Amino acid sequence: xxxxxxxxxxxxxxxxxxxxxxxxxxxxxxxxxxxxxxxxxxxxxxxxxxxxxxxxxxxxxxxxxxxxxxxxxxxxxxxxxxxxxxxxxxxxxxxxxxxxxxxxxxxxxxxxxxxxxxxxxxxxxxxxxxxxxxxxxxxxxxxxxxxxxxxxxxxxxxxxxxxxxxxxxxxxxxxxxxxxxxxxxxxxxxxxxxxxxxxxxxxxxxxxxxxxxxxxxxxxxxxxxxxxxxxxxxxxxxxxxxxxxxxxxxxx
Length: 252
What we know:
This protein has two helices and 17 strands. By secondary structure, it is of the alpha+beta class. Helix 1 runs antiparallel to helix 2 (212-247).
């Protein structure tokens, strides 16, 4: 009886994590460059009692959650500060009160202080992993390898000046994960070295790689399994109550 309850409760716990991941993905459908979260890897463990393994087995999560590297669809915006990575790779960013991280988000703009940032407010870094500070400009150009050139607001029209390179990395052989802050880094919290391998396209944005239809179907399926787990617990309660009734002594 208790094995049935343990199995159902363990299933409900795992379904809670799956539904949490699905909800996170659905809420991030419109975030440029968002990488779909994946459930944690799993393992199995037997419950031991009095130094002996019992028939109770639990599904366990192992390691940190991964994410999908599938390329998101590219959308042309025509905005000169929108930049998409059209190959494997990442931008380097510096979140507020956080360590340097990797991102695919390319909806750039200038902060009030003149620093290049993305739509989440993370500072975009150059190939030396330093924040990029730019003067006011009328035109912004970026090459397919990340070289930035601007026509200054108070400068000669049509004259462009180079302001270095965006920090990029291909990270093709790296094991990456999302931390508690949702940022992408190595498992030890570090990031790869910059290298100008990724190719860029100006005036375009990479959309999230989340398939909302697939996520909704998975959410509905998880809800149905959750309801089955609850019925399992109710069934165990009814069986236990019935057994107690059978064992009750007759009353005179």
